[in-house]
Amino acid sequence: MEYRKLLGTDLSVSAVGFGVWTVGTTWWGVRDEGVGKRLLRQAYEQGVTLFDNGDTYASGRAEELQREALGDVRDQLVVATKFGYDIYNNPERPGQQERPHDWTPAYLRKALEHSLKRLGTDRIDYYQLHNPRLDAIRNDDLFAELEKLKSEGLIRAYGTALGPALNERQVEEGIASVRERRAPTQIIYNLLEQLLGESILPVAEAEGVGVLARVPHASGLLEGYMDLNTTFEPGDHRNWRLTTSEKRRAWMEDGLKKVELLQPFLYGRHISQLALQFALHSPAMASVIPNIYDEAGLKRYTGLAEVAPLTEQEYAQIQALYADNFGLSTNLIGEVVR
């Protein structure tokens, strides 16, 4: 496992992180808690130190699950979680619908106290605003309180996790986080969906502030299992992409054509490993957070050191394909949700 500095903080994180939502919620992914705990433990044993959680995941149950699986090795981990959604006054909604935010300093303290208890720890290593809009990032009272929490030792660093879906407004949000707050930011970024990375990563490199990438496999297209007959279980957010024949063609058919054009770059790599190497190319990128559902995927993701590294020539060739939209006339693969 490679370890990288999360620029702008004193944290060192594994280049591959674990997004705990895949084992700690009932949205889609792993629903058996025993399997989830086993995957969390195996990830730690395979070198993963960054575990990315959120208090809204199953209304806190995901944080408890992490404590139950990894509490005895807490000091070897970089514990990351998120706050902002008022989960105490608003019941969980079906699927992945957002709840109202509360960005007041008082709510921040309340959310942190509960997360500390559920995670079984006395500090959060990396505390993130969960899907903030620009007004939250520019909320001076909120960031003053975050600084107080740092001085009290309750958090070590803070940042932003942008979302929920890929959206043009997140370019401004990410740049504000990096440039105005010097706070690392988590973005959706992969070699098929570069809207945020192409704008935010150069700023992050220039400012010396880190970035984390989630959805590095383009919601499954770059995991290697998908074909035109693939369907998703009820509750899986990817179903919205397939609600019309046009969306199915744009996302799945065009996406799979692009994946086919990436085959010459594999050189013994699995397509999912190539995707992670691509996302990690920038010196500002501290860690990528793939969706982990099984032992086979976990082993591939944590085994990047065992495959050929991505060369600068390969990276440039892939970017040339991307710039030309892989030779396709449409570009709806990374459909922007406004």
| Number of helical stretches of at least 4 residues | 12
Name the helicity range.
25-40%
Element-level helix/strand string: EEEHHEHEHEHHEHEHEHHEHH
Mean pLDDT: 91
Number of strands: 10
Biggest sheet, strands in spatial order? Answer: 3-4-5-6-7-8-9-10
Shape, principal axes of CA atoms: globular
Describe the oligomeric state of these chains in a short phrase.
single chain
* Uncertain stretches of 5 or more adjacent residues: 333-338
Distance between the termini: 37 Å
- What about the largest sheet? 8 strands, parallel
How would you sum up this structure, described in words?
This protein has 338 residues and is α/β, with parallel strands linked by helices. Helices cover 38% and strands 13% of the residues. It contains 12 helices and 10 strands. The protein has helices at 21-24, 33-45, 61-70, 105-119, 134-137, 140-151, 169-180, 197-207, 245-261, 271-279, 295-302, 312-323, and strands at residues 3-5, 12-14, 18-19, 50-52, 78-83, 124-130, 155-161, 185-188, 211-214, 285-289. The protein has an 8-stranded parallel β-sheet. It has a two-stranded antiparallel sheet with strand order 1-2. Helix 2 crosses helix 3 (61-70). It starts with a strand and ends in a 15-residue tail after the last helix.
Write the layout of secondary structure elements.
Layout: E1 3-5, E2 12-14, E3 18-19, H1 21-24, H2 33-45, E4 50-52, H3 61-70, E5 78-83, H4 105-119, E6 124-130, H5 134-137, H6 140-151, E7 155-161, H7 169-180, E8 185-188, H8 197-207, E9 211-214, H9 245-261, H10 271-279, E10 285-289, H11 295-302, H12 312-323
Parallel strand pairs: 3-4, 4-5, 5-6, 6-7, 7-8, 8-9, 9-10
Antiparallel strand pairs: 1-2
